Amino acid sequence: MRQPTAAYHTLMTPDTVEGLRQRLLQFAQARDWLQFHSPKNLSCALVVEAGELLEHFQWLTDEESRNLAPAKREAVAAEMADVFIYLVQLSSAMGVDLVQAAQQKIDLNEQRYPADRARGHNKKYDEL
Amino acid sequence: MRQPTAAYHTLMTPDTVEGLRQRLLQFAQARDWLQFHSPKNLSCALVVEAGELLEHFQWLTDEESRNLAPAKREAVAAEMADVFIYLVQLSSAMGVDLVQAAQQKIDLNEQRYPADRARGHNKKYDEL
Amino acid sequence: MRQPTAAYHTLMTPDTVEGLRQRLLQFAQARDWLQFHSPKNLSCALVVEAGELLEHFQWLTDEESRNLAPAKREAVAAEMADVFIYLVQLSSAMGVDLVQAAQQKIDLNEQRYPADRARGHNKKYDEL
Amino acid sequence: MRQPTAAYHTLMTPDTVEGLRQRLLQFAQARDWLQFHSPKNLSCALVVEAGELLEHFQWLTDEESRNLAPAKREAVAAEMADVFIYLVQLSSAMGVDLVQAAQQKIDLNEQRYPADRARGHNKKYDEL
Predict the structure, then answer these.
(1) End-to-end CA distance of chain B
(2) Confidence of residue D14 (pLDDT cuts 50, 70, 90)
(3) Which SS3 state, helix, strand or coil, does residue A84 take?
């Protein structure tokens, strides 16, 4: 049954966060999983996947992390996908528009980190 | 200088993950921050933000996490934005298309978790 | 009332993990907090504190992380304490002897990582 | 060669955090691993293990997390051991006395959370 679902997806939903969110909602509903998808549980799952992502880098140097072998890169991409999936599901559970929330946070960061004062160092805004 | 940047954003980039990615890239470039944005460092930052997200829920019941007061909900949305921002920056550093990676992972999950066998319980696919 | 408690602690409990565990148990009981200390919640709290620990290092180079300024070092020590406190409380909630569990894990790691094969590289045991 | 090491451990070091710390130091030195054990890397490893710990609980209710089947309990204990091992190794790398740091933090928490005001609820000290 995968083909029809994939086809449906390709035809009917634009390839955006909202398209992804709707597909994930249908996926969870079809399995009666929304009962498990409280914001608390989804946040737990998200942090678990973030840990699995970091696991790939924990013993690497910065430089090595910038030059991954193809198989490792694929594995990292799959963990990134898992983080994204839980984040999108959390946005459903919370009723938060992810892209809008991120745009607003960047607006704030542009105020907190003026380019001329923040340039080239890694201090937090309250240390600038 | 925030207004022009925001205006530029609104006019020139669609409100998508790719638009967000380009805006974040310009933000980091303007501050000479790409030197810090190795996949290792961005994964660290992502997991730190995921922890800050979870902090809001750590002592709540499932039910309480589904019924947050408005101020708490805003705070959670801001942490979700931070997670998303680092994830999108990581996608730049890794050259990974986030939405595509997520769609492919859902394709895989549809195979791993057939709706009729996965319905209503929380087992991992290798325990089904 | 802090002095008597501290005095009691100094006199009655040896400065060990078990002494710490008993002190934390009394601390939680006196505040009627054991109702919140499920293994799930304590694991959430532990991962949150682990994230706060990592936050201090997220943008540092390896070398910088080995040479912290005194104030930063104190802040890191306080986060390590928080991680340890939740881990010890989790050991109470789970009935697990932490030191013994760690000793057994090192026994296992000595088998998984024979010194002559594991020397000087950072591969996982199933890649050796 | 495991038996002699274990025997050595049993005979020569008390079963304490300091005994564990010394054993782990010898373990890392014998494999020339201290080069990887920067505070940054050890903090990454710690948060990764904390995530693996939380993974066992992510979809469970609070009540289920208090009543684990024996095999699950063993698996959780092994993850707790991993967290503890990295925390002890970090204490070596940082020159921090873990038990002392924890005792001091509890001293502070006794001031922040007076029993009569903190009893029975889960508010943070600055919300009391």
Answers:
(1) 55
(2) low
(3) helix
